[in-house]
Structures are given as structure tokens and as C-alpha cells.
């Protein structure tokens, strides 16, 4: 089963795999983030801009949304020869629910200049398996495979992958598949039990210094709670070849009991 099934030129139906973790009758936002990255990539290719690659993916999450058909749209906000800004959005039940603003930059060979990234993580084969359903309900969480080393509350190294395609019967690139997993950074190295504290994220921004490859996403994650109801989940993003970017999520922190 895939996470989404295309129902029209711009519409998609979520499957039960998209069931949320905070509320199982709502969508988990992670697959939607992957879907929007896929639409930006498909639009770029349709316009013949294979000379561009994503440098930043910045998502705003406008609120929860149910497991219902979604309408999508993509537009070029700032065209250009060397850089472009592309915006994609998803609406559900007549309401905008997630927006992506993606900066794309021209591809070039800078191999001779490459360097400065953090050290590689211990790989997925060196990291113990962990069942995320011990902390979270929902179809999305049950659909992923996780390896985790938890160093302290809110601090850990996680590897995650999924065997499920993002969109049924549709070719999806590596970036979109990875983007569809980025949001789980906020739930795999928790600082507090989600049965005791709610800490949903309002946004997610990933900065990339290269495109990822393979099937495993590595998350070197730190979760911080402030003293006035705000928090931050930040992660260095890895594939099996090393770091390829960073990820940040703004949190609203609310004690439940």
C-alpha cells in the first residue's frame, strides 16, 4: 500500500497508512511533506529545469486535517536562471493545510571544494532496532522501520525508512521519499512522554548541501523545551554516505496532565 493514491491531475486520496500520531483520525503531516516535495520536483522536470536542485524546503503547517481527499497547487514565485523559488500547497476540506516554499539552485561541480560537514553517524546496521509504536499510535508510525540509540531524553540518533511508496503507481525521487520522513524527527527522540505532554510542530525547514541517496534517513536529533510553552526539534540529516543537511521544527509545548 502507498501513502497516497492520485485521484486527478491535482488531487490525492490518503490511505490508512497516513493516520496521525496525535489523533489517528487525522493525517500525519510527514507524508504530505513528501508529497509536496514530489510535486515541486515534478513541476521542475516538466519545465525542463534539470539544471536546478533543491537547497531549502520550508513548510508551514496551518492546522490538523482529516483523512480526506486533498487538492494541490504548484507555482513559481520567483523564476530565474540560477535560482528559483517555488511554492506548493495542499488544501483539505476547502482549507489550506500545508504550504511548501522551496528554493532551487543551479547545479555545478564543486567536488574540489566539498568539506566542513559533521562526522558520519554509526550506520543503521550498527544501531539497535526500536518499535516506535511503543510511544505513538497511528498508521504512519506503524508503517516505518526505526533504529535508535537514545542518549538522554530529547537526544538521540535515529535511522528510519519505509517500504511503502509515497504515491501509488507513480515514480518518486529520492528527495521526496526522504522529505516524507523528515517530520518524524520530532517523535523518535522524545523529551517527554507524548501521553503526558503535547509538542506538535508548527513548521519544518530543511537546508540541504547535497541531495540524499539510498533508503535510510539518519537523524542526529536534539529536542529542547523552553520555559514559556515553546520548543525546538533540530537534527542533522544523514544518509549512509554522511550528512546532507539540517532540519528544524518549532514546537508548541502543552502539558496534558
TrEMBL record:
Domain Acyl-CoA thioesterase-like C-terminal per the UniProt entry, residue ranges: 124-253
* InterPro entries linked: ACOT8-like_C (IPR049450), Acyl-CoA_hotdog (IPR042171), HotDog_dom_sf (IPR029069), TesB_ACOT8-like_N (IPR049449)
Domain named Acyl-CoA thioesterase-like N-terminal HotDog is located at 21-105
Q: What is this protein called?
A: Thioesterase family protein
Amino acid at each position: 500500500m502507498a501513502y497516497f493514491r492520485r485521484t486527478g491531475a491535482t488531487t490525492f486520496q490518503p490511505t490508512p497508512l497516513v493516520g496521525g500520531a496525535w489523533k489517528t483520525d487525522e493525517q500525519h503531516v510527514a507524508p504530505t511533506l513528501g508529497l509536496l516535495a514530489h510535486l515541486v520536483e515534478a513541476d521542475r522536470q516538466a519545465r525542463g529545469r534539470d539544471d536546478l536542485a533543491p537547497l531549502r524546503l520550508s513548510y508551514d503547517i496551518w492546522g490538523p486535517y482529516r483523512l480526506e481527499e486533498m487538492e494541490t497547487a504548484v507555482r513559481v514565485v520567483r523564476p530565474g536562471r540560477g535560482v528559483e523559488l517555488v511554492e506548493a500547497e495542499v488544501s483539505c476540506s476547502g482549507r489550506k493545510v500545508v504550504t511548501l516554499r522551496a528554493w532551487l539552485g543551479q547545479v555545478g561541480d564543486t567536488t574540489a571544494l566539498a568539506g566542513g560537514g559533521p562526522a558520519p553517524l554509526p550506520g543503521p546496521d550498527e544501531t539497535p532496532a526500536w518499535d516506535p509504536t511503543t510511544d505513538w499510535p497511528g498508521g504512519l508510525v506503524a508503517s516505518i522501520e526505526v533504529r535508535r540509540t537514545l542518549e538522554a531524553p530529547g537526544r538521540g540518533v535515529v535511522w528510519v525508512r519505509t517500504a511503502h511508496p509515497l504515491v501509488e503507481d507513480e515514480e518518486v525521487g529520492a528527495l521526496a521519499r526522504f522529505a516524507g520522513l523528515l517530520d518524524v524527527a520530532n517523535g523518535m527522540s522524545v523529551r517527554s512522554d507524548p501521553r503526558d505532554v503535547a509538542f506538535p510542530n508548527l513548521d519544518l525547514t530543511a537546508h540541504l548541501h547535497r541531495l540524499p541517496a539510498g533508503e535510510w534517513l539518519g537523524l542526529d536529533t536534539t529536542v529542547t523545551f523552553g520555559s514559556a510553552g515553546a520548543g525546538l526539534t533540530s537534527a542533522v540529516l544523514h544518509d549512509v554516505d554522511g550528512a546532507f543537511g539540517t532540519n528544524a521544527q518549532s514546537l508548541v509545548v502543552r502539558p496534558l496532565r
